[in-house]
Specification:
Strand 5 (117-127) and strand 6 (132-137) form a beta hairpin. It contains 5 helices and 12 strands. It has 2 domains: 37-137, Beta Barrel (Thrombin, subunit H), CATH 2.40.10; 151-251, Beta Barrel (Thrombin, subunit H). With 265 residues, it is of the alpha+beta class. The strands form 2 sheets. Strands 1-2-3-6-5-4 form a 6-stranded antiparallel beta barrel. Strands 7-8-9-12-11-10 form a 6-stranded antiparallel beta barrel. Helices cover 20% and strands 36% of the residues. The N and C termini lie far apart (84 Å). The protein has helices at residues 2-23, 30-36, 65-69, 100-103, 238-251, and strands spanning 40-53, 75-91, 95-98, 108-113, 117-127, 132-137, 159-164, 172-183, 193-196, 208-210, 216-223, 233-237.
Length: 265
């Protein structure tokens, strides 16, 4: 009887310790964040937007013959627009991954590393269909790179951290868990998003989503909520992204298979 009691007591201790270890959050993300921060960059772009200004206090209805007649009097005006985003270094030579929508239409791209070092960058390749772009920092400096992890092994409930440039603040670390897998939002043609409750805001686009080993398992791309993060963010899985990134580096574009179809009676 005494042996049975000892057995049950041991079983309870094991189950309790398993429960505690499963429920406890990591003691700190500080060491992981400190190691990864130098590889995450802030991206700022400028773009020239040309608009035609009507000098008259009235407008002609669409299709009116007067519309073409007075078109020459309209004066084009140029203005500079700026945008902010995030990215991460995947090669010590300065190869940076970000979202296509961060750099689309940009005239100039500036990359800030470790908060104070600024470099110009050029586009190696971009793929609007998957919303991924690859940049190259115009410098001979050596940079700290991060590695891709296996996003297929990421499970719902796993801890993750996001690092990026929300609202231009730069170097911001947030934590959370993977909330769901295989999400589709209708934003691009190829979607298989990882959903996370790690806080992602405007400016985080293109930044990395890390697992607890410091490997990139996602590219933060979208949020649900117009005014900012409400705890629902979406990341492109690293396994899908890496295929596109490898092609952009090698060819400057994405090459996909296609099927030709002819319809006949």
């Amino acid at each position: 009887m005494k042996k049975i009691k000892i057995f049950f007591l041991t079983l309870l201790v094991i189950n309790f310790s398993s429960f505690v270890s499963a429920q406890n959050a990591p003691e700190s993300f500080a060491d992981l964040a400190e190691r990864l921060m130098p590889s995450v960059v802030n991206i700022s772009t400028t773009q020239t937007i040309v608009t035609n200004v009507n000098p008259f206090p009235f407008q002609f209805p669409p299709g009116s013959p007067f519309e073409d007649m007075f078109k020459e009097f309209s004066t084009p005006q140029k203005r500079k627009a700026s945008a902010l985003g995030s990215g991460f270094i995947i090669d010590a030579k300065g190869i940076v991954v970000t979202n296509n929508h961060v750099i689309q239409g940009a005239d100039d791209i500036l990359i800030r590393v470790e908060g104070d070092k600024e470099y110009k960058a050029k586009i190696i390749g971009a793929d609007p269909l998957s919303d991924i772009a690859v940049l190259e920092i115009q410098s001979k400096d050596q940079f700290v790179a991060v590695k891709f992890g296996n996003s297929d092994k990421a499970r719902i409930g796993d801890w993750v951290i996001a690092i990026g440039n929300p609202f231009g603040l730069g170097g911001t670390v947030t934590s959370g868990i993977i909330s769901a897998r295989n999400r589709s939002l209708g934003l691009s043609r190829y979607e298989d998003y990882i959903q996370t409750d790690a806080s992602i805001n405007v400016g985080n686009s293109g930044g990395p989503l890390f697992d607890m080993n410091g490997n990139v398992i996602g590219i933060n791309t979208a949020i649900l909520g117009q005014s900012g993060s409400i705890g629902i963010g979406f990341s492109i899985p690293s396994n899908s992204a890496k295929k596109v990134i490898d092609q952009l580096i090698e060819f400057g574009e994405t090459k996909r298979g296609w099927l030709g179809v002819r319809i006949q009676k």
